[in-house]
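Async update (no meeting this week)

Hi team, since we skipped the sync, here's where things stand on the single-chain job. The sequence we agreed to prioritize is pasted below, unchanged from the tracker. I ran it this morning and attached the output directly underneath so nobody has to dig for it. Comments welcome in thread, and please keep replies under the output.
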Amino acid sequence: MSLWWWSTARASGVLFDPTGYAPALQLDVLVQIEERIESATLAWTFEVDAGSDWGFAQMVPTDAVVVSLRYRQDGDWIEASAQPAASAPASPEGTGAPLPGALQVQLPALQDGPLTVELGWQRVLTTTGGRLSTTIPLDDGGLGPADPVVTVQITADPGAPILDPAWGPSEPILAGGSLQASWTGPLSEHDALTLSWGEPPAPFGIRLLTYRPDLDPFTGEPEPDGYGLVLIQPGTADADVRVDQLFTFVLDTSASMDGPALDAAIAATERWLRSLRPEDRFDVVSYASVARPFRAKAPLAGPDAIEDAVAFLARQRPLGLSDPEEGLTTALQLMDDTVQQRSFFSCAGSSQGPEPGPPLPGQPVVTRAGASVRIAPYVVWITDGGATSGVQDTDAILRSVQAANTVGASLFTLGVGPDVDQVLMERIAADHRGGWGLAGGPDDVAVEVDALLTAVADPVLVQPRLRSADVRQQAPEALPDVGAGHEVLAAFRYPVPGEATLQLTGIRGPTDLDERYPITLPPRDDALPAIARTWAGLRVADLDARALAGEPVLAEIETLVSTYGVASEVVTLGFDGVPSEGATAALQEASGCGCTSAPALAGLGPLLWVSLIARGRRKQSPDRAKSTIHG
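Output:
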């Protein structure tokens, strides 16, 4: 028998052999959340026949680390550890696709009867929109021939008062300081279950979690460097610390956007405009072969200006070719023109300081007159393709955008459909402290735009920087702005335990923040391996951007991907377990939702073939078995 863990999002909890799927009898899910750490255990029980070459597929959240994997028949547990596998398995008949990303274990001969497979994972939770949530995947894709009984039990002890809990199947229970939710029913009733709740905002500042085992389960190193995870907590959203915003929306209106794509982009932009506060400013730039701005100077987001902008959007027609360099540089130049006008910030001159170029991270824009301008500037670019007119070389476009961004704006890019230039979009977002997303179709545009709107609605720390002389390999290298209700993660390695200091700087309301926090880096702390994987994921994201910019960092990315099981946009592990380069090919397919090829999984999770070698039998125990950790 072979046991497989399938790391795609195509199906959850199926046991199969080359002829079909085994009936599932039961699924037991147990989740424990303590403060910001979630530990989950899923135990599937199947009815199996002796002699078949069975395989098991289980969906695991891409931000989770697998901390245990074991199986049993006759009441004994067999624990497994991860090793590279030599080849990929065949697909079960009728699935139509290979099975990328699996765990395999060779088992002794099985007998007829129940088989239980138990998988445990751990991950870090953060607040989004002032809420925490956990989602448990249950969907088996309709592949299983039976409809097993599912029991789900979740207990959350967040360490803070719990507000407005929500649990789909029924009302959750508040017991003291903990939140409890449970459900029992047939698997077919739910694809997934989500428990969410709010908390009163913690005071503005940082929260440190650490991990430093005696033996690193990822790298195998004895006495390794420790891992640190910092949660930057935004505190309360109030007018005294909120930074006024300057938005510019850049919309591709070329001929390829004709139809639902342009309609969805216009509708999403209109909804965003109507959500702005009166003290914020905005502009809109549509472009095809040429750029067409709404205003030469960004107006305040008052009712009249919003209605005029909505009318401007309604006049857009999909015509011509696409010149994103023209659209983006025009938007950034208009932001600079807005900042230098006396009517906006009561200061004259250019947004450039004594030295040309964008402001330093964590510093306000300084005009030639010497005035400090504290704003949160954002550009949101929506497109369905790449450059077909004007400047078409990616590096040349990036240089132009970098030179035009004199106000230090964060650039967010959203691609619609399968033909977007993902390399260009990701590099622009990475170079300018933003983010990028892919909408599979027009119906997804509103969801992606609304998620971004929520994240940047109330900035309370703009252009943040986290620094320490006592740590190394901090990631991300450029932190996103901190918005009310949204915790921001930063991770690092530390070689020497002991007392240390973290310095946090940035723009906070009308002042510059420069805060120093004393921290303790412990010599041993082995409870939270999810911190190590979180660091690796953030580090790979930084290195991906540098690789796309041409820096020679592919070897380090390959090592991190294969060691920690994290996802990379430029390096994947093929079916033979050998890392493969080819950033463009990976990115071209990363938006696919079918998960039918290795590159299509680049945005979903690691592509790792690993073999699980049985380490012998152990007597049944109520404690979960530990195993070699795999992402």
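Quick observations from my side:
The domain at 205-239+461-551 is CATH 2.60.40 (Immunoglobulin-like).
The chain is about 20% helix and 35% strand.
Reply here if anything looks off.
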